[in-house]
Amino acid sequence: MKSEHTETPVTVLGLGRMGSALAGALLAAGHPTTVWNRTPGKADALVARGALRADTVADAVTASDLLVVCVLDHAAVTALLQPVAGQLAGRTLVNLTSGSPEQARETAAWAAGHGIAYLDGGIMTTPEGVGLPTSMILYSGSPEALAAHRGTLAVLGDPIDLGADAGLASLYDAGLLGLMWSVFGGWLHATALVGADGVAAGTFTPVALRWLTTVGGFLDRYAGQIDAGHYPGDDATIDVQLAAVEHLLHAGRERGVDGRLPEFHRELMAKAVAEGNGGDSYARLVDAFRRP
Ligand SMILES: NC(=O)c1ccc[n+]([C@@H]2O[C@H](COP(=O)([O-])OP(=O)(O)OC[C@H]3O[C@@H](n4cnc5c(N)ncnc54)[C@H](OP(=O)(O)O)[C@@H]3O)[C@@H](O)[C@H]2O)c1
């Protein structure tokens, strides 16, 4: 059984939707949890569950050697933490606020200059998913800090170690959100297409989810091709897929469905064919993104 006295004390700065979920997960796992929020009332529910309220940022920082910050953006992190750099020295700062890779590297350099161990993170779930072992939280930055606190951070979600470059968690996060929006867009387009013939989204989606599993297998295969710079076209060529996308465009036109997404895919495929690469596999289109 977990004892309150053996778990690492943690401070959470920022108790919006996400920060409250993070603090709640730490409390639920028995960590002595100190909380601070700019609008103090947002701490009340956590304090009622056993969290310790800090009245000032400085009190919050000195309460624990491990600090988690999750506020709106990079500017808020900077405004919050720069005045307490002295108190942060010798502690570990885990920044789960979304930002750019450049901002993460800037904060990492600032932290290094003040003797603060720094981890940047990307939370790949919504507040409801915090604390579930199926939810990924990406980390990059101090390997020593991650090694020392992996067990505590695992309470928030499965920690994914991206290495010592503090910018990588934000870079992965941005790329993965782009992937999510592309999948949402493709699914919404397909749902509108089949919906025009009376198929409910709830009927179509289980089939779409099976298809995404198959597509995931293609990604595994194509990743190796991209790293090798070799696109053998041994499964389906771009020529074949360019012909197939015409069926999608035709079906959409007949049903009055916005065709801009598949038109973009057709444009990329047609460019590859025009460059003499129609016999290659689809992964060749990475060049279109690398050299727009
Ligand atoms: N929600 C999600 O699903 C999700 C998922 C992944 C990542 N994230 C990231 O998590 C971070 C927080 O998101 P959220 O959903 O918790 O947002 P939220 O509910 O709007 O909360 C924002 C938090 O930031 C604080 N804040 C804003 N400006 C501040 C400042 N200048 N100084 C001090 N505190 C400030 C707010 O304090 P007040 O209460 O005083 O306004 C509040 O605690 C964001 O970077 C977001 O991108 C969120």
Automatic annotation (TrEMBL):
One Pfam family, please name it.
NAD_binding_2
Domain spans labelled NADPH-dependent reductive aminase-like C-terminal:
165-291
Which keywords accompany this UniProt record? Answer: Oxidoreductase
Q: What family, per the record? A: Belongs to the HIBADH-related family.
* Domain of life, per lineage: Bacteria
In its UniProt entry, the species of origin is given as Streptomyces lavendulocolor
The UniProt record lists the 6-phosphogluconate dehydrogenase NADP-binding domain at: 10-158
What is the recorded name of this protein? NAD(P)-binding domain-containing protein
